[in-house]
Amino acid sequence: IRGLSSGNKRRLSVALALVKRPKILFLDEPTSGVDSASAVRMMTFLKNVAKAQNIAVVCTIHQPPASVFAGFDNVMVLSMGRVAYFGKAAKMNAYLAGIGHAPTADTNPAEFILDLVNKDFTSTASVRAVLDKWSEGTGKAYGCDAEHEDGAPLALADFQRAPFAKQLAVLTDRSVVVARREPLAYLVRLIANFNATLFFGIIYIETRDKVQAQINPRTFFLMFCVGIPMQFILVSNFIYHYQWLSLKKEVKDGMYHPAANAIASWIVQIPMMFILALSSLIPMFALGDLAWESFGIVLVLYAVTFWAFEGLAQAFSCFPNVIYGLFMFLNIYFMAFLFCGMFVDPEDVVWPIRIFCYFLPLGWTLQSYMYGLWHHMDNHKGVTYCTPGDALPQGGVCTAQGFYCYSEEDPSGAVCYGETGDQILESLSVQFTIFEAKGHYARNIGFIIAFGSLCRIGYVAAVYVLTKMYGGQTPAEPSDSYEVVVDGEDPSSDGSELAISVTEPSFAPVAKDDPDGTTFCFKDISYSIPGKKGAPDKRVLVDASATVHAGEVLAIVGPSGAGKTILLDTLTYSKGPGAPAGDITLDGHKMSRSVFVEQAIYVPREDNLWPTMTPRQHLEFAFKLFRPTLDAESLESEVSELLSVTGLTSCQDTRAGGFLFKGLSGGQRRRLSLAVALVKRPRVIILDEPTSGLDSAAAAAIVSLLDNIARKCKAAVICTIHQPSALVFAGFHKVLVLSEGRVAFCGERGDMAPYFEKVGQALSHDANPAEAVLDLVSKDATSEEAVKEILDKWEASNDSKSLALMSSGVEGNPPPSRRGAGGGAGAVASTAQVFKRSLSLALVDPLQYIGRLAAVPPIVAFFGLVYLASRETNQKQVPFRLFYLWWVLALPACMSISTLIGTNRDNFSVVYEIRAGMYKAWSYAASTSLVQVPALFLLAMCINIAAFAVGGWPWDYFITFTVTMTATLMVFDNLAQLLAVAFVNPVLGMLGFLGVWSSSIIFCGLVFRGEDVVWPFRLFYYLMPLKWTFGSAGYDVFMPSTFSGAETCVPGAAITYADGTAATCPPVGFYCDGMTSSFGCWGRTGTQVLDTLQMSYESLSSTDHRGRDIGVLLAMVAALKLGYVFILTKKVSATDSPQKPAKVSPKPKPVE
User: Fold this and answer.
1) How many beta carbons lie within 10 A of that of residue 320, not counting itself?
2) For strand 1047-1048 and strand 742-748, is the pairing parallel, antiparallel, or unpaired?
3) Which residues lie below 8 Å from residue 1140, measured CB to CB, with a gap of 6+?
4) Contact, 555 vs 601, CB < 8 A?
5) What is the pLDDT of residues 471-503, one digit of tens each?
6) Helices 164-181 and 258-288 sit at what angle, rounded to 10 degrees?
7) Are 521 and 512 in contact (CB under 8 A)?
8) SS3 per-residue string spanning 16-73
9) For the whole prediction, is pTM greater than 0.85?
10) CB-facing half-sphere around the CA of 876: CA atoms within 13 A
């Protein structure tokens, strides 16, 4: 939800702090993320507040511009954990002059001293000298007269917080407001719950028929209707986490007691849990034809269970990273699902794992929930009553349950549960042992409430600990013996080697008549966005023109919304929301997307690097693709030289790093991105904010490097820049100033100040011309009318008219590539190089394969321990062996989500490299597939060894089972790749993946029969991969096995039971002696067991369809791979070439 701007958010945070009427206000980076004008307004606001309310304001600040620094009364400068200066801000220059470091008159004092004490810009020895100078003094504030204090004395007063009852009332009101206005709080779940149970009601619509064959599907229908909505509570973990970030500060500030906030949230939770339960139950009861007299108790069970899981999500919201909390919640949820009693018999689970069966709440819910629903249900047809022990007409004897079932579809009578709800529950308890013909409502609701209460106690305890309500740390008394340790400091080095931008030799300017030089021009670049409902197009960029020669660096500057990004997107032929117009030429020839790929390079703001690769590996890979004719010795020499030029020699063997592990620093990553671009030997280099996120030293180093590279490589360099420091600005040759989508100035950097003075808009100060001009053309710093006047004056100036008279490009061949004949590597060679890199990454990147190799087999083995009793091949363990097989197939497929996260991360680099002309999309897809197949086969082999060994499965068909598992993993891995490239936001891709995976579990044939699903939903049964996996894998596991407890016989032949009862052999050719019910007699041979299971689990079969099933899975792999290549190709080929201007509205709308 969009709302306040960043500046308004900062001011609102300050306003909230002022409500407390503090005497000291601490702020961390109050101007972070805002432009110069907003920063000045913020600091002016703080100074006025400090004076009006007589409070002291203490803030940290990063690289303040001169106009912001001028508003400080006092300043403390820190470096390497020590003080470099403390005292009056206005007298800092005098102090520096006194220690031999006098700033020049046109220098921003803040920028000067930050460079002076930065060991990345100045030698460590010099920084230590400055720090030692301060240590030699008295330590008192410099320039402050002890007899004349600044401002009035602080009047300290006792802080009185509202009483607990008032806190509770106010916080409850706020919780109600959040519940009403925040969609993620409850509204999203209301919709999701209703749609989920509505969907299941449609899928299981056949269960409305009260027949024996629909009892098992109805049971799963009821289970999914309670289990799946619990998963949606994951969303509340997300919202509670971001509420926790605010709560943590408010509690620390003493606004309220944490218990008051917790109780307030629980007060709102209770009625909302009943509303959520209603949204789930209404479609379930309506479509499932359930007995409405059970609605009340089921509503209570539902709501109480929701409340318990809500407490779990709230407790996990206190993790420092929201991903950790989401992961922990999902773990507990899946464990609750596994140990709920539907998939495992608690008595069969070994200790201490069995404790989960009794601790987690879903089992207690299901026991009472199923009783409440089945007990009141209408009678089911298909049952014939008999006297226990009597011979049955079709063979066999009447069991102790006193009824039997017979039909042509089920001659064995195995699918026979009973007529009444209580009979059905007793029969189901043979497989689902938690079911009883008793509700145990009070006991089970008590256990669920106890679990939810325990989660909430843990939440309150976590809040107490993490907000340091008790045990807060108080600074110790100063010690005469201490040592300051600085991260990354090498005491053996003086630090001079870090200042590579300062010591790097400067190259001579490129002569304009140099035969190897180049000239890049863009003329009258405009950008129009189509109007809505017949309105005229809106022009957001108007007639931007400039010329950049080889050896020159053009900086594009402007306030937020000036049009810098739109201009850069046009120059790089990137696809945008509108239509670009104008001319772009290279050495007088019109450019196109293909010419840009051949002659130019674009370096985006984000560093598109491979986390596990080192700088040397990045460059070697780029050289092999951009300049494949180099022999091994020349390639080594070129790589070493480029590492030296970009200052990366010292970190050449350090991994780039990412969100899983640290690596290169921000400045090093920027230099590496630039180094990779230089391998191409481009004539034009375009960069988006190359100094973004860097400190003064690193930013100056980058710009100095750009200047030297532009001259050494005879390239034209164009970059956008946001609020450059004076030292950074001095590194540019030309400047293009934009505002409101129009040009305010374009020309030599040295001509900028004289131009503005000539038009009556002299820059306000000389310390930093860039800062001054940005304030001048920002409507937030001046006024909209003043900015329009400046823009109109440039449009009317002779300089603007001379740029407009530049000749347009001519058609023809562009200048030859500097990489020589043939350009980059061919199709086969590029595919081979990408394959080598993919193979090396697969061996080190945890998100690709090695992470799953380490994690998935132990998880499968853990599930094997849960189902350890299923090693016994008896009648009772047949369904549990089936459920273990289900988990073995489903869980590894779910873990392919790590591929989605890694591929989404890597796609930025892949798209960048393909657009830069390194290789083709199909080359990348082919090379990754060549790695994927053996890697997934190895993963499947390891998983299956664990499953077969722990589960006691027969090894007869191990190889075909492994092939099936490999094909299944390939389906989900390729699905993950497809979603990763389709969605830029990985969260959307993950939600899509989990949706497909969950649907695949539901439509695998285990929980309902495909023939019972109405069209078009039945399509999912055939399109989801686990249906085909389940059929093939079920054949491999059950077919070679023999199960005790059943005896084979000839249908119609006489048989004698152990108690002497004489009967005839049933038509299915087997019988179970001594069983109390016909349900649970599956057969002796694998063929008999599979035939019996097929009556309930349709995807299983005793007919060998493994070839067909594996073929379908491989067809899915091919389809997903083609989809991936199609979307990737479409994404990298999307381009906009400037055309002739269309009719547009005269007034531009500012868009960044």
Assistant:
1) 11
2) unpaired
3) 581
4) no
5) 456 666 666 555 554 444 444 444 333 333 333
6) 40
7) no
8) HHHCCCCCEEEEECCCCCCCHHHHHHHHHHHHHHHHHHCCEEEEECCCCCHHHHCCCC
9) no
10) 16
